[in-house]
Amino acid sequence: MSIVAIRGAITVENNDSEDIIINTVNLLKEIEKRNHLNKDKGISILFSSTSDLNKEYPAKAARNIGYKDSALMCFNEMKVEGSLEKCIRVMLLYSSNIDQKDVKHVYLKGAKSLRPDLNK
Q: Which of 10, 33, 44, 88 lies in disulfide reach of 27, CB 3.0 to 4.6 Å?
């Protein structure tokens, strides 16, 4: 067994609790689907969000869908002039037999612009 890091991001339309939760759940479920994950093997999930999202912690979405034993932590994303707005980013550390080179990183909605190399 080794540990892999799985990245992802999604943009949200509105700065409200429901939109933040729904979109974070969608992102996490898509990461799980593409990487065939079992929540019990999740070690930790780091969330960052842009400063224009302040109505909910994205980590609440992870708890809601069963990440009960994973360590979760939320941060503000670094403010860079001209950067993507209303964006939630995630890095999931996972105990797996997957090689890091075979991990499927997931970027959805407007966040696809962050990794155009993955959206071919």
A: 10
Q: What is the pLDDT of residue 91?
A: 98
Evaluate if pTM is beyond 0.90.
yes
115 is catalytic: yes
Point out the catalytic residue in the list 7, 57, 67, 87. Answer: 7
Is 34 annotated as catalytic?
Answer: no
User: Annotated catalytic, 87?
Assistant: no
Helices (H), 3-120: 17-35, 59-64
| Beta strands 87-96; 42-49: pairing state | antiparallel
Residue 107 β-bridge partners: 9
Alpha carbon distance 44, 108 (integer Å): 21
Distance separating the N- and C-terminal Cα atoms of the chain = 30
Active site residue 74: yes
Asked whether residue 5 carries a pLDDT value surpassing 80, the answer given is yes
Dist CA 53 CA 85 (whole Å)? 9
19 DSSP 8-state letter: H
DSSP conformation class of 90: E
C-beta separation of 79 from 3 below 8 A = no
